[in-house]
Amino acid sequence: MSTAVARDYGVQSLGMRDTFVATATELIDTDPRVAVVLAVITLDRFADAARRHPDRVIDVGIREQLLVTTAGGLALAGMRPIAHTFASFLVERPFEQIKLDLGHQDLGAVLVSSGASYDYPFAGRTHMSPGDVALIDTLPGWTIQVPGHPDEVGPLLRAAAAGDDRVYLRLREEPNGVAYSRAGEMTRLREGRRGVVLAVGPIADRVLAATEGLDVTVLYTPTVRPLDTAMLRAALPDDRADVMVVEPYLAGTSSHVISDALRDRPHRLAALGVSRDREVRGYGSVTDHDRAHGLDPASLARAARSFF
């Protein structure tokens, strides 16, 4: 892969990634613990920071297993590593290193992905990662955050960099129109009496449009692990526990958490997300993939009307 191709694949509007770069650069300049580890992707945007701090902006080349292992080594040395590349290369390809070099050794790091489930459909299946959150969720001790707007990225990254735990921050290219939560907390966007729709990250605008006119509460969260199940329970009416969760990655990823939180109450749960039952083999556009997985506003509206 050439450097020119590896930079941005021709994508021009990258608000969340731009915010990540600006915030990470600020952290490198102000916190001597922070180091950024890259695997070519986004390297050009850290050129100035690399000139100022050549020992703390590290490019390992297209070696994603080494990317995570290097982050683990930096953590062992007392640093706070931020490792970054596309989601499929950050989580799926080096999953064994995430499991062993970070988790098994109980080391902290911040993993920041871009590309989400299928933000680069023109690059093919290699650049699609709808299962990344579900994979990280198999490992204990991870905070998982899925911001829905560029303005949510900076506060989440600063908070993650200030800690010592393991954090996965998942960015995507098509955000909500506004920031619904600045500190990662669950937020109530609409009040209703017939159940709850939980919208995760950048899918919230579509959920609001799809549920217009329905008597349901809409909750928004950029933080999926740990999930604020106390607020979810409090938002449910006393006479019915109907929950629809809409996640911009593998459908059902949070079903086990929600079901466990409601184990003392009879409840119905609908889990919407990227389909587990089919693989979309055409390149298409992001809109085409949304439609194929039922995540476009019209499909979400039909699902919500049917369920509630």
Describe the structure in brief.
This protein has helices at residues 3-8, 15-30, 47-52, 64-76, 87-92, 95-104, 132-136, 150-162, 204-210, 229-235, 255-261, 286-292, 297-307, and strands at residues 34-38, 57-59, 80-86, 109-114, 142-145, 166-170, 187-190, 196-200, 217-221, 223-225, 242-250, 268-274.
Descriptive notes:
This protein is an alpha/beta fold. The chain folds into two domains: about 5-170, Rossmann fold, CATH 3.40.50; about 185-305, 3-Layer(aba) Sandwich (Rossmann fold). The chain contains 13 helices and twelve strands. It has a seven-stranded mixed β-sheet, with helices on both faces. Strand 8 (about 195-200), helix 9 (about 205-210) and strand 9 (about 215-220) form a beta-alpha-beta unit. Helix 2 (about 15-30) runs parallel beside helix 8 (about 150-160), helix 4 (about 65-75) runs parallel beside helix 6 and helix 9 packs across helix 13 (about 295-305). It is globular. The termini are far apart. The model is unreliable at about 1-15 (pLDDT under 50).
